[in-house]
Sequence to fold (137 residues):
Amino acid sequence: MENYLYTCQYCGKEYKPNRRKKQKYCNNSCRTRAYQLRNPKLGSTVPSVEKTPESVKIDKMSLAGVGNAAAGALAVNALTNLFTSEENKHATKKDIRELKELFISRYLPILNVPPNSLGEHPFFDLHIKNIVYLKKR
Fold:
């Protein structure tokens, strides 16, 4: 195995070869891009990649950019709330909790049995699976 670094013939990056004196490229993607450039009749036009320090641009975060992003998010949320009908809006945890309390309670009313002599109405208890008589709230 070689002890020194080779230079990739496509991107120019230095690498340690895995194969002795046969490896010309640092990885498979550089190898295939170089092949596509050598054979233009394949129909693929891959531009050569030149990595120079001048061409690399790093965007910096600015207060104006953060403000613009926040204003944009607020505008989108406001327009979404304005133009979305109430039945198409998302359910919140509070909505789901209210539905559980409303529909899925321990006692379900029985409508086809009359109240007893004390005025208590029949309910089916889901926990003990029996009919119980309770005062209506």
Notes: The two ends are 86 Å apart (CA to CA). The beta strands are 6-7, 14-15, 107-109, 121-125, 130-134. Residues 1-53 form one domain.
